[in-house]
Amino acid sequence: MVPPDFRAVVLARTAARAIVRPRANVIPTSRDKLVLPAVAAHASSGSIYSSGFVGSMVGENPSDATGTTEGTFQQLQVDVKMSKEQANLSHALINDSAVDLVGWLAANIAENQALLEDNQFLLGNGDSLNCLGISNGGSATSALTTTDALTAAQVADFIFLLPPQYVAQAE
Fold this sequence. Notes:
There is one protein chain. The chain is α+β, with helices and mostly antiparallel strands. The chain is built from four helices and two strands; from the N terminus they run H-E-E-H-H-H. Strands 1-2 form a two-stranded antiparallel sheet.
């Protein structure tokens, strides 16, 4: 078991070192599946509108039905994946160390966790043990291939596939 104080230090350092985690919506859970409410994409313009709620232009005195859109609600199931980092240290090693071994270990674990997460978020293949990374996520990722590493050209192509409404928040 990891002491809560040590875990907090590792998670804080992981967020500081990671590329994706600081930009992600992290939802703590104690279950192996997370079910979230969602609004289905717009039926005919799903790549433009982020949900089924779509505004429209209407005349000065619109009828009740004119310009009305209703979102279709659904559930989004997220399979939770787990990672593990382990270090076996004796009390003697910790006590006899000339450096802050626990601090060094926290930084090292955090760096490795950040690298693992970023790799999964970008290249994960979505099997039973791995996340589904953006390079394997479907039609929006057609500019990316499932090679060992993303090239600068692939990332640039992916950025240009981003719908305009999301560009302002993109980093």
